[in-house]
Sequence to fold (256 residues):
Amino acid sequence: MKSLEIRDLTVALTESPDQPIVKGLSLTIKTGEVHAIMGPNGTGKSTLSKAIAGHPDYKVTSGDVLIDGVSVLEMEPDERARAGIFLAFQYPAEIPGVSIANFLRAAEQARLADGENVDAAAYYKRLYSKMDSLKIDRKFTSRSVNEGFSGGEKKRCEILQMAMLEPTFALMDETDSGLDIDALKIVAEGVNNLRGDNLGVMMITHYQRLLDYIVPDFVHVMYDGRIVKSGDKSLAIELEAKGYDWIKEEFATASA
Fold:
């Protein structure tokens, strides 16, 4: 069992390092676990995921992020990816002219040592096996990455990337954003297909509806850059019933 430890982490925009967005947040995620992070807009959820992945727009001003006790903060984003971190973006970028098959093959090639090359036959055999298990039409990989994709197709593309790259920890930033209920079910089925003892998931969402399909082991409520409440799925149901004003009132009382 491996662990991703977020230790007393404070994060700000690189251009505004004196204005923290994430404020002394601590959380440990182990492989085999799914942690849902909920909270209102502007509370630092996406900032947290991007900072862990090494996005250059964000600066860690204090604290640490460790995988099995080894800090990743001095690593470049590609090194963090090779160490096992995968970030699924809320709004995945389009890459015109680059097919999904070639994109994934390049990603696998980048993980090999100098002088080694991806075996084409083995690569496509594995790719098609993953697509079949995720119920993705094989013609899908001939399309340019995210170009002209619906919200559901973009998320499905990211799930295929996860399946092929086999990360140790997946950071999923608002996976349900822009999805209708049918697309949500398809994406949730894909995520559930990848769940297991070798994958830890941090899943950011505003809404309880996603958690009806991807049932988390832990739910954390984030407010004002901090985790202010943790529990199981029943916490998400309570939050949906009471709204985020409930958390704001609790946080204000606790801080008084």
Remarks:
- Residues 3-255 form a domain with the Rossmann fold fold (CATH 3.40.50.300).
- The radius of gyration is 18 Å.
- Residues 152 and 183 are 5 Å apart (CA to CA).
- DSSP finds eight helices and twelve strands in the chain.
